[in-house]
Amino acid sequence: LIDIQAAAGSGHPAIAIASVGVTGLSYPIVALDAATGESQRSAADWRLGVALPAEQRGTHMSRFLSAVHEASAAPLSLDGVLAMTQALVPRLAAPVAEMSVAFSWYREMKAPVSQLTSLAACRVTYGATAPAHGDATKTLTIAVPAKALCPCSKAISERGAHNQRSDVTVSMTLAADATTWAINRVITAIEASASAALYPLLKREDEKFITEFAYDNPVFVEDIVRNAAERLSDAPGIKTLVVEAINRESIHAHDCFARVVVSR
Amino acid sequence: LIDIQAAAGSGHPAIAIASVGVTGLSYPIVALDAATGESQRSAADWRLGVALPAEQRGTHMSRFLSAVHEASAAPLSLDGVLAMTQALVPRLAAPVAEMSVAFSWYREMKAPVSQLTSLAACRVTYGATAPAHGDATKTLTIAVPAKALCPCSKAISERGAHNQRSDVTVSMTLAADATTWAINRVITAIEASASAALYPLLKREDEKFITEFAYDNPVFVEDIVRNAAERLSDAPGIKTLVVEAINRESIHAHDCFARVVVSR
Amino acid sequence: LIDIQAAAGSGHPAIAIASVGVTGLSYPIVALDAATGESQRSAADWRLGVALPAEQRGTHMSRFLSAVHEASAAPLSLDGVLAMTQALVPRLAAPVAEMSVAFSWYREMKAPVSQLTSLAACRVTYGATAPAHGDATKTLTIAVPAKALCPCSKAISERGAHNQRSDVTVSMTLAADATTWAINRVITAIEASASAALYPLLKREDEKFITEFAYDNPVFVEDIVRNAAERLSDAPGIKTLVVEAINRESIHAHDCFARVVVSR
Amino acid sequence: LIDIQAAAGSGHPAIAIASVGVTGLSYPIVALDAATGESQRSAADWRLGVALPAEQRGTHMSRFLSAVHEASAAPLSLDGVLAMTQALVPRLAAPVAEMSVAFSWYREMKAPVSQLTSLAACRVTYGATAPAHGDATKTLTIAVPAKALCPCSKAISERGAHNQRSDVTVSMTLAADATTWAINRVITAIEASASAALYPLLKREDEKFITEFAYDNPVFVEDIVRNAAERLSDAPGIKTLVVEAINRESIHAHDCFARVVVSR
After folding, report:
1. Yes or no, beta carbons of C147 and D251 under 8 Å apart
2. Closest residue to C205, CB basis, from A1, A69, A202
């Protein structure tokens, strides 16, 4: 059967493709947190791409699927994703490869007073970029919701203060040989940066504790991202840190956001 | 050109189709609130379908598009949607037709203290079901966010109370000849059922007012739907009233919901 | 600490709550297909609710979380979800309980010519409704995409035929004691009802096979749901079967849908 | 009332905020295409933000709402969005401001054979970035679906070829004083880059035409973005052009994407 992708020129000798590949791919993962050795099997969303030189018409899409299928059985850490990305470069004869895989990760939480245990979800993305020549990087992205209680509302009101869920996302781009922080360590830094952590299972005594704790720790959306940046920007080998928070305001139907970008 | 949909039998002489048609169709609307005479042009999401007898293989999809295109230019009220649905019955030789069209609707709000004006969005859906024989109905659905402050958190805590955005949806199915409530009248009933209304534009004096007002009016998610049902269930000609609220909890990452269904 | 939910009357002595509970809850599952004994750990989306009598103000939300946490560790089948729902009735002193849990499920597929293996995702929902008095039911819902090639386009065109992804969803509501079909058996019935199955990993010889196979098996969206209903409606103990297909049309920006409802 | 945002230092003297503001804001727009003079009222999604110096704790969120409310009544072009962004700089005493507003835009299409008229939607985003010192830019983003028929599938198969909807997005970042292309001119360039355009309303003779036309014009996802880049990259004043296409593959459940980035 003819190989159209390879046989023909692109017809566009001056236009290289920045990235071409597959996205929206649901495939299982055994995600490994190398810092703790814990692994969890889950559904994952994969995206893989390569740059394509100007003279080549098409990439070979099925090779991405083979790579994912091979990687899907064994535990896969952030360094594993980096190695997988680096292996795409010769496999697709590409000048640069990039990939990301996103999955839900669960951690045990204890309610602050009752000490009851439940499992809280966060969204983790392992990503990497690998050029044929030069330095590869890896990116750990963690999204976790927390509580934000408005300092302005508290200061000006005689009683109460509006508060809301805040979706906080941290993205740490690291040198290839850097040690990666444990998922829970990043989450702890995020939760300590907001008014309070969120819990799946709370009894009344816990609800009282969190209500009062949040009231005593008001933060603006700007405070959250700065607090988190301060806790995370000294991670060894970090090249770029992005922290974004989106407050689902409870006095408005729209959201408020803030973003910090730290480059080393 | 051969008409495959009409020419062939279905091959399934015992299986009628409950509904077949088009969905995910973006088409403009000039939405008319007949109770007030106000109209607004907007983008809209259309869904139209008909039942198909067991012996007929396919419907004629392009007729739905013609119907929407014809309706799109002039102001369209809930009664207009009902008439459009009734016209689909002979147009597609169908035993029953149904449709819905959803759009954003804006209303002017005044901040409670500063009296500053801004425009708040809600989501309105006009729907109807029309059988070839028997009574047609029309359905007005309005979704609007409001504020919910937790009575339990307030009662047990020494300071503060957790509160959050609550997405409230009211769906009123009415007799074909019933008078339809104005959109704003339904929204007022919803907002009065929650701890406070949400506003796009608030100055500090307004934020203080709403914070304290909500603190003084705590409601559970169950309270919201019952309060709204009480205000709305006496609408003339009402056949079924459904009220659902979803609280985007600010001490949990999950949501709490409640739903009331009243049939007359 | 005062129990506001239990202590107070509802203030609405005539308005019962149809369902109140938690939704949007991400919690892990070890999903078990009882028909085959296969289990898969995954992230899951949980929704649990109970009816609430008119005189009771609020339910006890934390009990839903306890129930999920307890169920989360061991393999959970559709019958397990039914048992869990039945246990909610006394646990929350409710007249009726309902729940659903949705997760990604992967199955091995072999490409039709190359016989290469890959894992394809479908979305499975286990659901149940359990009244305090009367018969409980359980519902197996499976959503899987397939290929639909238009019979009209093929018949009227000199070359080619438009074809597209079709999202097909089957929902089987069963008596409590009915045997549940294996997930793969339902999927096989769906895929045989469309123009072709979709595969994650295909080589050129497979692509040629599927292109020609789909061209030889054209189906309207109405055909898909009727074909699937015919294959599934004789499942033992079935009470209601709903099949819906949504074709992501490749000659339109909107979708076409069809739905069959069979009640026994 | 105390102004907490302004009164306090940030507590983080070394951490500036890259962007802080509002997002997820639904507000009406009268969108103006300055190249043609056509305007359309619609619902719009607004996002506005400013950078915040390290020593300032919080921005003044309500000023974004005032700016949107003032802009909402009159026709707003891309140059109007640029002027609005530039006005945010002094209004919020910010080192840089950025904003975007996204809306559905409808254009008349004529079916290729029947010449029947219908209205097709695309998604347009007007954006701008304005620094206190230096050059501002404006960005026109247009997303429109088209048809992609696979050249490989056609070449290797004896009959038929798989084809699918492709979501194509073009983003043109322009110098502040550059002339902006008409929306329809960009869309025409996109549609000419794919296998065929999509139409809301088609009769059988049109369906035949498009089926055959697409079969005669096969394109890979890489071809689409290169074809579009060639047609668009010579726009006057262009600084960066990004073209991305996502094919909703009809032989896979996942998507294929390609992206070109041209910088001048």
Report:
1. yes
2. A1
Give the 3-state secondary structure of residue C51: strand
Residues 6+ apart with CB under 8 A from A27: A44, A46, A68, A69, A72, C106, C119, C121, C200
| Bridge partners of residue B29, in order along the sequence | B42
Which of A10, A12, A259 is nearest residue D19 as measured by Cβ atoms?
A: A259
Flag whether residue A14 sits within 8 Å of chain B, measured between CB atoms: no
Neighbours of C123 (CB within 10 A): 18
At which residue do the structure tokens 């339902």 appear?
C186
| Strand partners for C27 | C44
Q: How does strand C17-33 pair with strand C75-76? A: parallel
Residue C40 CA, distance from chain mean position: 16
Q: Check B119 against D40: CB less than 8 A apart.
A: no
Which chain B residue has the Cα nearest residue A164?
Answer: B250
Residue count (chain B): 264
Evaluate whether D17 touches A226 at the Cβ level (below 8 Å): yes
* Cα A249 to Cα A258: distance, rounded to the nearest angstrom: 13
Find how far residue D122's CA is from the centre of its chain: 9
pLDDT of A58-97, one tens digit each? 999 999 999 999 999 899 999 999 999 999 999 999 999 9
Give the Cβ contact number of residue C196 at 10 Å.
26
- Which residues of chain A neighbour B149 with C-beta distances below 8 Å? 160
- Is the CB of residue D218 less than 8 Å away from at least one CB of chain C? no
Residue whose entry in the numeric block shows the structure tokens 């480059």: A263
A152 near B CB under 8 A: yes
Given the cut 0.90, state whether the ipTM is greater than it.
Answer: yes
C149: closest CA among C158, C159, C161? C161
Cα–Cα dist B121/A227, whole Å: 33
Q: State pLDDT tens for residues C134-172.
A: 999 999 999 999 999 999 999 999 999 999 999 999 999
Q: Kindly determine whether residue C117 and residue A41, on different chains, have CB atoms separated by under 8 Å.
A: no
Q: Do D23 and A246 touch (CB under 8 A)?
A: yes
Structure tokens that stand for C151 in this block: 């019979």
Interface check B108 vs D, CB under 8 A: no
Cβ-based contacts of C26 with chain A (< 8 Å): 104, 121
Rounded to whole angstroms, the Cα distance separating B19 from B130 reads 12
